[in-house]
Amino acid sequence: MRIDEKGERIPLTIADFDAQKGTVTIIFQEVGKTTKQLGCLSEGDYISDFIGPLGNPTEIKRYGRVVCIGGGVGVAPIYLKVRALREAGNEVISIIGARTKELLILEEELQEISDEFYITTDDGSKGHHGFVTDVLQKLIDERKNIDLVATAGPAIMMKVVANVTRKHNIRTIASLNPIMVDGTGMCGSCRVRVDGKTKFTCVDGPEFDAHKVDFDHLMTRLQRYLKEEKLALERWG
Amino acid sequence: MALRQPMPEQDPKKRIHNFDEVALGYSAEQAVSEAERCLQCAEPGCEQGCPVEVDIPEFIERIKEGNFGDAIKVVRKKNHLPAICGRVCPYEDQCEKFCVLGKKEEPVAIGRLERFVADYERRKGFKIPSKPEATGKKVAVVGSGPAGVTVSAELAKLGHEVIVFEALHAPGGVLMYGIPEFRLPKEIVEAEISYIKKLGVSIKTGIVIGKTISVDELLEEFDAAFIGTGAGLPRWMNIPGEDLCGVYSANEFLTRINLMRAYLFPEYDTPVRKGKKVAVIGGGNVAMDSARAALRLGAKDVFIVYRRSEKEMPARQEEIEHAKEEGVKLKLLTLPTKILGDEKGWVEKMECVRMELGEPDESGRRIPIAIKNSEFTMNVDTVIIAIGQSPNPLISRMTEELQVAEQGTIVVDGNSMTSKEGVFAGGDIVSGAATVIESMGAGKRAARAIHEYISR
């Protein structure tokens, strides 16, 4: 997405779609200049460019019991997965987390379509006081047979999720969110280390085996433009 | 015989502080004087050196008469991007190489004259030829770089309806994302594209064929499709440290600067690292562009690190000269082996080994061989990898039945048709990374084949 002539190209996830109306839904959190500017638009306003869908679709099939874990704005990509996995005959347990209850999204929608549904907040303002992985660990302890974990959200959260499931040998898929420019495999800004190999998230991903992703490397690369991001935001604000 | 007219240029000391065009273009007087040098050979050699077959002596003769409007008409008959070709073509290896004057002195400056008439036309305002009768046939063109644009213009002139699909938000392909403003102003690319649109070609940006729409879906709506998606996949050295912060593919570095205008950050939103000590790995035009762009971003030291000697560099001589004038330092016969980072994951140093040249390989260039115990370390804060691009794999990955060669290029027959009926291809996606004009030549050949195919 590029908001206007001088805008940066940023990757966003499709949270929902309506093929009949020809619309897609995106959910974004106002964190930087582009997303804050996007938040100032009203119905009927235009954005300059919207390109996609890019990357590879999630592999949807009957796994058995699946736990879907979304953190912050990463709940958006989880929603469509939960729906599709349910339709494919899976038992789906959803866990969503945020810093505080105001930042929780798609609560009701997910509750409605999940077999079980859990909320966690870092500050305890809603649901479990703690992290999504606390709930995940409890589920694993109570019930042995979890066939798949799918996660999206902050890199640190996905890293901890992967650490938990690795111990129990549960297959885990993470949807990564690195910095991108073109989104078509041309630049390599979004390169990540998976199983020791370099992959482009935009065309090889965005989903990878979470046990093989180098999350520390991802977190380092996400910090590349912190100074510039701050400057752009200050200048705009 | 008068000497070849020199190209007026921005002073190197000044130009390293701006992204404005380096070469300023001939004045009318210079153009006429240069045109007067042409001998108007009965059997001109220059034309055989032009991949799009411009009638060179004819347009030069019109310049000599001072008839610049007619001169550009002659060029336009064969070349749809004259202001671009007049800037970035390697004339010294094409038309000018065959100029008979070149045997004893310097050849006629054909490229500069082409640029002159194209710039003259743009300043005066384009005159668009009358539209031909519509044939009712529709062709989809994938990619709006030099190949795609040429195919489109040729087919539109024959009365076919052409829709171009461009994945990025601006048309022009490598002309927009790859070649920097100081060598090819984006205003010029936009003007040339506007001419193509006036011929009746419609360009849809932000549509990724293979993702948004598949090639099969295109064939349901169009009588034929042309794939000109170029060589956009960056190559890596495959050495440790390549994914540290501060290491860029030349594609990313240049796309941020050219397409996204990161050199104007924060007026434009997209940032780019402004390194102080920059190493650019590679010896081609893209390496020169990256090095010169890094200088303009404010780097104190910019090194071109190349494993052979200057003689083997694939970059145009003119680009190497410009880079040297501006203060880019050549570190020749040097091969990086490892990039080292600091505790925060940012580039700090680069380990290299010195090379010597052995026997020539099949390309005729001498093979570089590492010298034992010659390892050394360079302090750098930014590394740009410019060792070439491979064909963009998106469409071939997403399209069954499309035969692809080992290097990722799409295979075509003698009529530019791929293994998929009705799907044609040309430019870098077929040849591997080449020049703007070669892609245009391929576009021209493909247009002829497509015209025949849809008119059958």
- Compute the number of structural domains of chain A: 2
Give the number of helices of chain B.
16
Mean pLDDT of chain B: 95
Low-confidence stretches of chain A: none
Tell me the radius of gyration of chain A: 18 Å
Strand order of the largest sheet of chain B: 3-2-1-4-16
Tell me the number of strands of chain B.
16
CATH class of the largest domain in chain A: Alpha Beta
Beta content of chain B comes to: 15-25%
How many strands, which pairing sense, and closed or not: the largest β-sheet of chain A?
7 strands, mixed
C-alpha geometry of chain B: globular
Q: Helix- and strand-based class of chain B?
A: alpha/beta
Strand adjacency order, main sheet of chain A:
6-5-4-3-7-8-11
Give a structural overview:
- The complex is a heterodimer of chains A (237) and B (456).
- Chain A has two domains: 14-52 and 226-236, no CATH class; 65-222, Rossmann fold (3-Layer(aba) Sandwich).
- By secondary structure, chain A is α/β, with parallel strands linked by helices.
- The longest helix of chain A has 13 residues, at 75-87.
- Chain A has helices spanning 33-39, 75-87, 107-113, 132-142, 155-167, 201-204, 215-222, 226-236; strands at 14-18, 23-26, 65-71, 91-98, 116-121, 128-129, 148-152, 172-175, 191-194, 197-200, 207-209.
- In chain A, 43% of the residues are buried.
- Chain A is built from eight helices and eleven strands.
- In chain A, 31% of the residues lie in helices and 22% in strands.
- In chain A, the strands form three sheets. A seven-stranded mixed sheet of chain A has the order 6-5-4-3-7-8-11, sandwiched between helices.
- By secondary structure, chain B is an alpha/beta fold.
- In chain B, the strands form four sheets. Chain B has a five-stranded parallel sheet with strand order 3-2-1-4-16, with helices on both faces. Chain B has a five-stranded parallel sheet with strand order 6-14-7-8-9.
- In chain B, α3 (56-64) crosses α6 and α5 (82-88) packs antiparallel against α6.
- Chain B is globular, with a radius of gyration of 23 Å.
- The termini of chain B are far apart.
- The relative contact order of chain B is 0.13.
- Classes of the chains: A alpha/beta (237), B alpha/beta (456).
- Chain A binds chain B through residues 2, 6-9, 33-34, 48-54, 181-182, 184-189, 191, 193, 198, 203, 217, 220-221, 223-225, 228-229, 231-232, 235, and chain B through 167-169, 177, 205-208, 211-212, 232-234, 236, 242-243, 245, 248-249, 251-252, 255-256, 260-261, 265-271, 273, 344-345, 392-394.
